[in-house]
Structure formats: C-alpha cells, structure tokens
Amino acid sequence: MLEPLLPAQPARGGQWRDHRQVVNAICCIKRTGSPWRDLPERYGPWKTAYQRFRRWAAYGTWAMAKKHVVALAEADEDIDWDAQIDATIVRVHQHAAGARKRGFRVANRQHGKPSDARAAG
Where is the composition biased (Basic residues) (predicted)? Predict the structure, then answer.
C-alpha cells in the first residue's frame, strides 16, 4: 500500500537501502520509544533510518501516507474514530510532585545574626 507513495530510487548515486527494511526500522523505533542508536542491527545502520525518517517528514511523505491509509480504511469501513483515555495511567512529571499549592513565596531573610539585629535596635 505504501510503496507507490514512497520516493523512487535516485537516478544518480548509490542504491538506497530497501524501503521495506527502513520503514520496519522506523516502526521499531517509534513502537519501542528507544533512541535511534539502539536500533537492532537487522534493520541496517541507524543513521539510514533516521535520515530517511527526517527527510520524508520534511517532504510530507508521512502525512501523505497517513491520508492514504486512512482513506483506504474509511472506504472499507474498517476504522473506528471513537477513542477513550483512562486518566489513571497518566503520570505527572517528577518535578510537579510536592509543589506549593498557594503559589511561590519569597522568604523574608535578614542578613546577619539574630542577636545583631536586637543589639542594633
């Protein structure tokens, strides 16, 4: 389904790595959330997948592929647009824990010892 939407082999220069292998590499990274450098060797060099992902994103290839796949799914009535989210799985960032409830307050600090303030006054 995606092959006609992907760029053709360049007329000049070296041969590109197979699109199927690169798309599988990109899907692996996006599915696992791991860094590009942790791409398994069976997918080829991580830089190839990364550069192709970035290039296709800049050219709008991914957006066009998404529109095409959604159109095919809607034509087959094979898509369900109803979605739900369960708030019990949403986690707060670690820096948000334990924050003050009444806003930020600056402490009134005096420089010097407390005994110096009493002696001067």
Answer: 100-112
